Amino acid sequence: MHAFDLVLRDETQSVRQKAQRKKKRVTETAALPDTAVTAHESAGRPSNRPFPPSSAIATTAFSGISIPKSLQEPHEQQAVNAFFSNYILLPRHPYSKRGYLDCLLPLYQTTRHDSLLSLATSAIALCIEGGSPSTRHFREVSRAFFGKALIKTSRAIRDPVESVKDETLMAVLLLSFYERVLATAEAKQASGVHDTGAVALVKHRGKANGDSEISARLLLAVQTQVVDHCIQTSAPFGKTSADLDSLRPDTFENAASRLTSLSAQVSDLMAFANPLLRNRNEFPSQEQLLHILDYASAVETKVSAWPDTVPDDWWWKPSHSFDNLPSHESRLFVYNRRVDIYHDIWVASIWNSYRTTMLMIQYTILQTLGFLNPPPLSSDAIQIVTAINKVQSLIDDICASVPFNLGTKTFGGPNDRKEVRYPDDGINKPSNDYRKAAAGLGGWFLLEPLKLAAHAISMRDGQKDWILRQIERIQRIYTIRKPIEEPTNAMPSPR
User: Can you tell me the distance from the alpha carbon of 320 to that of 341, in angstroms, rounded to the nearest whole number?
Assistant: First the structure.
């Protein structure tokens, strides 16, 4: 806890200095006039609090919660309204819940407008809404809220009461989400400091992590985020996995949480293999390479069994609704005339998480085989061809999910546009909830799988160019800065 506090102090000072430098360039968020909107508000809720929109009752896992709507929408109100409408209040498959955003509403409703959770919510809402060209300045406004939230976080984690509250852990997760979104938008690597802080918090909370469904879900969200960060940075998950698993209630498990636990083993594989395979100063020994192969094969066996555990309605189905697109649009939006549709955007995202996990394993196997038996003298040609075929199949599946996630959208930020087409099953038109989720999250969910697919050493002619065009499309839609270097071969040839 103390180490996290020190990091927060440094980060708070940095954010405060940035906010002061940019203060003259941003518009101050206006306060709403006093308005009695609902019984909740008249019972003591500050009237200048941004509220998510709803005509009456939110249809979520926590039904029966009324959501007041403000009469005016300054920057903060507009962003929070869009955030809840486009990301929080959308229905999703119960077995796909490994995150925390759908737990936000009941916690958010009980906090004051100047609370840590409220500030963190406003920060991420403004940051995401700033993905549209017309509201790009919202991201600058978000930095001020982020800085205030950091100050309150530093106080909360040292308070014996506040440090064990779900609201505090939720706020830290939102700050981590903010850091990831902003890092992606600016083509930087997220530091992961808030993931580290979240792990420290759940350990500090102990068995309180199982006191309620929300508490258990927040614990799972921490585990998921840390696994993702470890995989991206080739850091070992190791003992952290066992520590978090011991805190999670035995009854709380679903298809998404099982994939998270399996992915933790892949992060440990990458942490072991990458330093050996990417060391330009020392060639890995035969014994080390054989150990990597055995390790990778064992992890692959476990991960590849995951699809057998998913619900029947999670499996994708082919769609032919894009078959009549003009040829130039078909080439832009569809690869190899294949379009798959899923139960919802979150299920599609979890399937692509599985595919990226399997791709990392196959990349490791191929690179290790390349060191053991440099082509074309390889005695393991069959094993190499098998891995290459698996890579091709996984990449084809990712490409076939692109139309479901992006439709025909090419610009406009995270909001839905009525002229954008999305694939359907030939019977029912795409629902408004699906369109909102696809517009707001589809591109973000696709970005990492597509980047990893572009790293493949071998794929069908023209497929890499198509993938890179989809990455450029996502960057344009969400105002994401392009990295200085385009994706390169993730499997350098042996010396």
Answer: 10
> Where does residue 311 fall: left (phi above 0), alpha (psi -120 to 50 degrees), or beta otherwise?
beta
d(CA 194, CA 178): 10
Locate 445 and state its tokens: 């969910």
What pLDDT score does 65 carry? Answer: 41
H-helix or E-strand spanning residue 318: strand 317-318
Nearest to 174 by CA among 202, 139, 150, 203: 150
Report how far residue 381's alpha carbon sits from residue 230's, in angstroms, rounded to the nearest whole number: 32
Continuous segment of H or E residues that includes residue 317: strand 317-318
CA-nearest of 181, 163, 159 to 172 is 163
Taking alpha carbons only, the member of 312, 304, 397 closest to residue 349 is 397
> Do 116 and 167 touch, CB atoms closer than 8 A?
yes
CA distance 478 to 442: 11
pLDDT along the chain (495 residues), means of 10: 43 49 42 31 40 37 41 72 86 74 90 92 93 84 94 94 93 93 82 79 77 83 81 71 60 80 90 90 90 96 96 95 90 96 95 96 94 65 90 98 96 87 93 93 94 93 97 92 52 31
- Taking the C-alpha atoms of residue 334 and residue 342, their distance in angstroms, rounded to an integer, is 16
**Quick one: pLDDT at residue 42?**
32
104: exposed, middle or buried (Cβ count in 10 Å: 0-12, 13-18, 19+): buried
In the numeric block, which tokens belong to residue 80? 């929070």
Q: How far is CA 374 from CA 63, 164, 246, 295, 390, in A?
A: 60, 54, 44, 20, 20
Long-range contacts formed by 147-153: CB under 8 A, 24+ apart: 147/12, 147/15, 147/16, 147/18, 147/19, 148/119, 149/116, 149/119, 149/120, 149/123, 149/175, 150/8, 150/11, 150/12, 150/15, 150/175, 151/12, 152/115, 152/116, 152/119, 153/8, 153/116, 153/120, 153/197
Q: Are 80 and 50 in contact (CB under 8 A)?
A: yes
What local confidence, expressed as pLDDT, does residue 186 receive?
Answer: 83
Rg (CA), the chain: 23
CA–CA dist 46, 35 (Å, integer)? 9
Question: Residue 41 and residue 71: Cα distance in Å, rounded?
Answer: 14
Q: What does the alpha-carbon distance between residue 381 and residue 375 come to, in Å, rounded to a whole number? A: 8
Instruction: Return the sign of the alpha-carbon dihedral for residues 259, 436, 80, 55.
Output: negative
Are the C-beta atoms of residues 402 and 467 closer than 8 Å to each other?
Answer: no
Q: What was the pLDDT predicted at 233?
A: 73
> pLDDT value at position 377?
54
Phi, psi of 57 (to 5 degrees): -115, 135
List, in sequence order, the alpha helices (H) in 44-137: 75-83, 104-108, 116-129
pLDDT at 257: 83
